[in-house]
Write a structure and sequence with these properties.
The complex is a heterodimer of chains A (110) and B (111). With 110 residues, chain A is an all-beta fold. Chain A is 0% helix and 54% strand. Chain B is globular, with a radius of gyration of 13 Å. Classes of the chains: A mainly beta (110), B mainly beta (111).
């Protein structure tokens, strides 16, 4: 079983739609969690950290469920510019070694 | 600040050739990383360096060596390239709050 698993998609949604991605992790000792965004042929960039209490940044909401060992990302009012691959990332033990999921591809269509 | 820089951006090698991928960061970060990214595989850690003078293997270290030359620079060497090493290579460094900053990547094709 992979340490971090995501549905690769692609998720094809119309502009304005709400879309949610989930990610599961296998190691219960995981300490910190992130969502990164990667545009085609570019480097990954941090989208947001994921806190136990959940956090929101504009149209983006991230949630963590430690009991079920999953992380979610909700995007409201999707824009064309949201089209990208979203990577779920887990830090196992504050070592700085981040484990990446394979990514979920989102295509927002006009 | 340039952030994380990588050279070269593109490279084509023949099987058996050697090369060194260069990475530098100007953010005074202690930890630096090398990843490879293949279609459908996500990012896989090759080697990392928690601080100047230390290096450790990641998930896929075979066929690679690294050097942490100083705090700024972390290089990745392929001694004898193989077609299985065709990939996109990303260097990264980690700052406060565990945010990783990535370089623009090196696209390597081994024939």
């Amino acid at each position: 079983r992979k340490e971090v698993e995501q549905d690769p998609g692609p998720f094809n949604v119309p502009e304005g739609a709400t879309v949610a991605f989930n990610c599961t992790y296998s190691n219960s000792a995981s300490q910190s969690f992130f969502w990164y965004r990667q545009d085609c042929r570019k480097e990954p960039k941090l989208l947001m950290s994921v806190y136990s209490s959940g956090n929101e940044d504009g149209r983006f909401t991230a949630q963590l469920n430690r009991a079920s060992q999953y992380i979610s990302l909700l995007i409201r009012d999707s824009k064309l510019s949201d089209s990208a691959t979203y990577l779920c990332v887990v830090n196992l033990s504050n070592t700085g070694k981040l484990i990446f999921g394979q990514g979920t591809t989102l295509q927002v269509k006009p | 600040n340039a952030g994380v820089t990588q050279t070269p951006k593109f490279q084509v090698l023949k099987t058996g050739q050697s090369m060194t991928l260069q990475c530098a960061q100007d953010m005074n970060h202690n930890s630096m990383y090398w990843y490879r990214q293949d279609p459908g595989m996500g990012l896989r850690l090759i080697y990392y360096s928690a601080s100047e003078g230390t290096t450790d293997k990641g998930e896929v270290p075979n066929g690679y060596n690294v050097s942490r030359l100083n705090k700024r620079e972390f290089s990745l060497r392929l001694e004898s390239a193989a077609p299985s090493q065709t990939s996109v290579y990303f260097c990264a460094s980690i700052g406060s709050q565990e945010t990783q900053y990535f370089g623009p990547g090196t696209r390597l094709l081994v024939l």
